[in-house]
Task: structure prediction
Amino acid sequence: MVQVGRVQDILSGLIAGSVDIGTMAFPYDIKAKESGFRELADLSQSGARYASSSFLAKRQFLTQNKGPAEGFVRAIIEALQFIRVRRDDGIKILSRYTRMSDMKVLAQTYDYHSRVIWPRVPEIQPEDLKLVLEELAEANPKAREIDPAELIYGSIVKDVVASGFVERLYGR
Result:
């Protein structure tokens, strides 16, 4: 097993025959299928949770800057709502950041992400960090001693949700 690089590089390697199998993400998996490759598993349907991208800050910073931190969380929730309810704009944004112009692929990518991937509220649960800590423990055994719940300071997100912001934003 070798690290090839970006998903685009994995797809290029598959098509060129220099890679036999690879992990794909939208929208590149659609291109792989169009090139004759078959999906072996859809990890988003596995039920496994994994923190693939997170926003990090020290707990002290969050408690001392509660107002700005809540504003940041509101902005993330508002951006998620924008992208989820404005399909055409969402597809344009995907096109810009994936550098793809195939509208069919972009539309499928958008539809999948808005239905499965993009949450209404960006929350993290202790089980999201379990696999991350297990991976870290391979290089640093002390990671096994960490309780994932201790790494999460979720009160900022909970306070924003409790304020009714999400319901007002989505009209429910």
